[in-house]
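Figure 6 in text form: structure in, sequence out.
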């Protein structure tokens, strides 16, 4: 198995955690704590890649977790700092006249 990548339990667990947290953060980003989950997903993904490189293991899901986490956090930061864009997609409810 010289030069071949192998499956590693620790790297797989961290990769799955990274992808799960990033997807959950992407879906719950509008609640406010989604950015925190996205950041955790990116951190777990980076740790999984570092461990995977040391152990010569596959960590494709870690890369996917990092990508989804960065996209989710970036989208939420964009919507928070540009409120006009956010208001365009979520207009306020019309006011009722007495």
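Output sequence:
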């Amino acid at each position: 198995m010289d030069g071949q990548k192998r499956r590693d339990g620790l790297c797989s667990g961290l990769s799955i955690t990274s992808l799960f947290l990033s997807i959950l953060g992407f879906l719950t980003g509008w609640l406010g704590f989604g950015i925190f989950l996205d950041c955790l997903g990116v951190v777990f993904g980076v740790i999984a890649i570092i461990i995977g490189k040391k152990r010569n293991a596959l960590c494709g899901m870690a890369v996917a977790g990092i990508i989804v986490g960065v996209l989710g956090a970036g989208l939420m930061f964009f919507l928070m700092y540009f409120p006009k864009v956010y208001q365009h997609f979520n207009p306020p409810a019309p006011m009722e006249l007495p």
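Caption detail: DSSP finds four helices and no strands in the chain.
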